[in-house]
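Work Package 3 (structural annotation) set out to generate three-dimensional models for the target panel prioritized at the project kickoff. During this period the team completed the workflow that converts sequence records into discrete structure tokens, so that structures can be stored uniformly alongside our sequence database. As a representative example, we reproduce one entry of 160 residues exactly as it appears in the project archive.
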Amino acid sequence: MLQKIFLNLLLTLLTAFAFVATANAQAEGQTEEQKMETDAKSAAKGMCSCMNLFFDALHPKLVDLMTDMLEVGEEQAQANFFTYLMSATPEEQALINKDIERMEDIDVELDAFCGEVIERFSAYDDNKEFEVKMISNLSQLPECKIVYSVMKLGQEDGEN
């Protein structure tokens, strides 16, 4: 009886090991293009998650400003923002100004929120193709609308 249990356990472990080995072999068998596509999807999801945490910590009107810049253009977005800012209470203006100051150190903020993701995909730092693929993946994730807007703006600024 004990021998049958041990034999079944051993067969289960061997089957699991074979499955893992096959999965690893398939992953290693990816072409560079497939690996980049897989990494771009993973980077998009990771950046979306951490940047959403960052945006959740900002005043909602600053987030609206970033989204509007892509949707209605920079001039109109700034005009809308300043119209709102002029009608806001002094307390709310102070909160917005505090968050604007935080955004001046955006590198520090992003490192605090997204450092692990940025480090994990640092091999692609100067790879335009990877950037395009990652931003394309962001555009397909509804929960990443704001992150997509910001990344798209950054990409457009980089092209100019």
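Helices lie at 2-28, 32-56, 60-71, 74-87, 90-104, 106-120, 128-139, 145-159.
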